[in-house]
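[09:14] KT: can someone run the structure on this one? pasting the chain below
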Amino acid sequence: GGGNYWILDMEFHNALAKATHNEIIHRMLAGVGHSVHEMFALSKEIGLYESFSLLALRSHLEIIKFIRMRDAMGASLAMRYHLLQCIQYLKSHDS
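[09:31] RB: done, structure tokens below
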């Protein structure tokens, strides 16, 4: 499988940040990059890189769907759900 999904993930976050035209959001998402990389590294360690990447991709598609509908609240909720889902997924599989 493609072992560099986390790079595409970071590019997705950067594109989202740029689209906001908000420097604070851009800096905040850039700062999250290190934590995201750590999450992908952990998923690799526990043998779940492929399934974790797929989970993240599905969440990104949901976020994009709301952005395309110009539904800011929906996109915001989808992003929050994405973060919580990724954290919970890794916690529940890390033994």
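[09:33] KT: thanks! Helices lie at 5-20, 23-45, 49-68, 72-93.
[09:34] RB: yep, looked fine to me
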